[in-house]
Design a protein that fits this description.
Elements (H helix, E strand, L loop, with lengths): L2 E2 H4 L5 E9 L5 E3 L1 E2 L13 E5 L2 E10 L5 E5 L11 E6 L1 H20 L4 E6 L3 E7 L7 H13 L4 E7 H5 L18 E7 L7 E4 L14 E10 L2 E8 L2
Parallel strand pairs: 1-4
Antiparallel strand pairs: 2-3, 2-8, 3-7, 5-6, 5-8, 6-7, 9-10, 10-15, 11-12, 12-13, 14-15
Helix pairs in contact: 2-3
């Protein structure tokens, strides 16, 4: 299993690594995972892989059935073989925008306190599908609450709990469509706010900014009906 730098050091932009294997499809597995693999509505990271004066663009990153993190080359090219020492360089601007949107969606789940049935992140906007029959009446109140939390510059941290601790606190799970992995010995929790006054605490395997102020300028987007009991709410980065 690759060492997940994307979780232990979210702000790391470069890393040395070694090629562990090549998949039958031409994907590259390394011993260190700087790039976040597609999952939980967050796109896989892109960037560049360098070795022996060669530089390969990476289009995206996915997770294999065995849990390995696989880099997907952007175009057919010579691939570094197992044992090759390489350098990873993350497309930081794209990743950082994903982090800002992901943290913004967690705030949205606080402001609109209904179960989540789906979500998606991009570099410009994100959306959450809520188990909600009627559309919220006051759009301005939602946007104002989001801006208030961003303006408070609250810390965003993570820690790990056991499956037993999670089962003892089922209210932590907001997302109905995707449950935390039951096979993992521990589950990662992402917290917004101080330990004695947090506003959000939920299982999450994605990348986030360190403080809500880093989300920056935002605006509330469309609110759509996606089914009898589902409302989709969009939020956008404004810079």
């Amino acid at each position: 299993m690759s060492q997940p730098i994307y979780l232990t050091d979210t702000y790391a932009r470069e890393s040395a690594a070694k090629v562990v294997s090549i998949t039958p499809e031409g994907g590259i597995v390394l011993d260190r995972a700087l790039f976040y693999p597609t999952g939980g509505g967050q796109p896989g990271d892109s960037g560049w892989l360098s070795w022996d004066r060669q530089r390969m663009p990476i289009a995206t990153t996915v997770k294999g059935q065995d849990g390995s993190v696989i880099l997907v080359p952007a175009e057919p090219a010579v691939i570094p073989q197992a044992g090759t020492h390489v350098t990873l360089a993350l497309d930081w601007d794209r990743r950082h925008r994903h982090m800002r949107v992901h943290s913004l969606l967690h705030l949205l789940s606080v402001v609109v306190p209904f179960p989540v049935v789906g979500g998606q992140i991009s570099a410009t906007h994100g959306r959450i599908d809520f188990d909600l029959a009627d559309a919220p009446e006051d759009r301005d109140a939602i946007e104002d609450a989001l801006l208030s939390y961003i303006g408070q510059d609250l810390p965003i941290t993570d820690h790990w709990i056991t499956q037993e601790e999670l089962q003892a606190a089922p209210d932590l799970v907001k997302t109905l469509s995707v449950a935390p992995p039951a096979t993992a010995a521990e589950v990662r929790l992402v917290q917004i706010g101080e330990d004695d006054a947090w506003i959000d605490l939920q299982p999450c395997g994605g990348t986030h900014v360190a403080r809500t102020g880093e989300i920056g300028a935002i605006r509330l987007g469309k609110i759509e009906k996606k089914g009898r009991d589902t409302r989709r709410i969009y939020v956008h980065l404004d810079s």
